[in-house]
Write a structure and sequence with these properties.
With 335 residues, the chain is an alpha/beta fold. The protein has ten helices and 17 strands. α10 links the parallel β16 and β17. α3 packs across α4 and α6 runs parallel beside α7.
């Protein structure tokens, strides 16, 4: 089969090329899908650069989210059959014509979602759902702060917070265009902060009458750490999803964590067990998935696509993501 491969196993985006790889076959409990679209995620860049340790058994081919047709099923799989239209999550291998995924990690593609919209959902929405709903236990009336608001996960988290009844949702981003976009979404941010020119801790205190936020979803790490702690209300929760600015904070005061009874949790999804991922997918389907439409639909949650590239332009797609130009998902079509 054809697949996007990395010359020398790792390297800059110029090492990406369309080549040939062995077509996978579905083992017990697995499903083989012919891929139509796949989504780009920041972990793909890290993996391409050799900085992302793969979970055991994951294929070397990049990509974890996709849409397509079922073309084969393994032993013990009864709910899927050839021709079924699905979207799904896998441990890797989506930058290819065919992918194998656990049968419980697939969701039937609704007719109201296009193929590219469907492929844009699994990784970002499941990551956001896990961080916000499962771990941070967002509830009606909470004040929420979402960093990297214009990223795929950021946009998903903002909308999920609104779905679950958040009082305020403050998003941070680096440009006015991104902030304006986040404020303009039907269920978008209620407030927006340029973290380069404003102090987001001071801004969220203004919008919460000095209380602070109950939940923070953070991808940034080091540069935001002290302001994050300052931003949190009593009994506040923070879910840490990435460390884009670095992993080491030279020094900070532990006292607010104790006195404000803060809860700080790291979270990953790709390395989780199949049972954990299956439970997460099932809860997401029950509570949130039916609310999702495309950007032109009327759903309480919408899938926003920044740009779609043919997969033979994968270098340009990675360049776009590395430049942080996107507001919404960067997608690729298998052509």
């Amino acid at each position: 089969m054809r697949a996007i491969l990395v010359k020398d196993g790792k390297g800059p985006l110029e090492n990406l090329y369309l080549g040939e790889a062995e077509k996978p076959s579905p083992g017990p409990g697995k499903v083989l899908v012919k891929v139509k679209y796949f989504g780009l995620n920041r972990m793909d860049i890290l993996q391409r650069e050799g900085k992302y340790p793969l979970p055991p058994g994951a294929p070397d081919i990049l990509g974890v989210e996709f849409s397509g047709h079922v073309v084969g099923v393994g032993e013990g799989v009864s709910e899927w059959k050839e021709g079924d239209e699905v979207l799904g999550l896998a441990s890797g291998g989506a930058y290819a014509e065919y992918i194998v995924a656990p049968h419980r990690n697939l969701i039937k593609k609704p007719a109201h979602l296009s193929w590219v919209e469907a492929a844009s959902i699994p990784e970002v929405f499941l990551t956001a759902f896990q961080a916000l709903v499962v771990l941070a236990e967002v509830k009606k009336g909470d004040n929420v702060l979402v960093h990297a608001g214009a990223s795929g996960v950021g946009i998903a988290a903002i909308q999920l917070a609104r779905l679950y009844g958040a009082n305020t949702v403050t998003a941070t981003a680096s440009t006015q265009d991104k902030l304006d976009m986040l404020l303009s979404l039907p269920n978008g941010a209620t407030h927006a902060v340029n973290y380069k020119t404003q102090d987001f801790a001071e801004e969220v205190k203004k919008t919460t009458n000095g209380k602070g936020v109950d939940v923070i979803i953070d991808f940034v790490g080091q540069s935001h750490w002290n302001k994050n702690i300052d931003s949190l209300a009593y009994d506040g929760r923070i879910t840490l999803l990435a460390l884009l600015s670095g992993a080491e904070v030279p020094n900070f005061n532990l006292a607010p964590i104790l006195f404000k009874r803060l809860r700080i949790q790291g979270s990953t999804l790709r390395a989780r067990s199949e049972d954990y991922q299956a439970d997460l997918v099932a809860r997401f389907k029950r509570e949130a998935f039916d609310h999702i439409t495309g950007s032109s639909g009327n759903g309480r949650i919408r899938a926003y696509i920044h740009r779609v590239y043919p997969w033979n332009e994968i270098q340009e797609a990675h360049r776009e993501m590395e430049a942080n130009k996107n507001s919404g998902k960067i997608m690729a079509e298998v052509v």
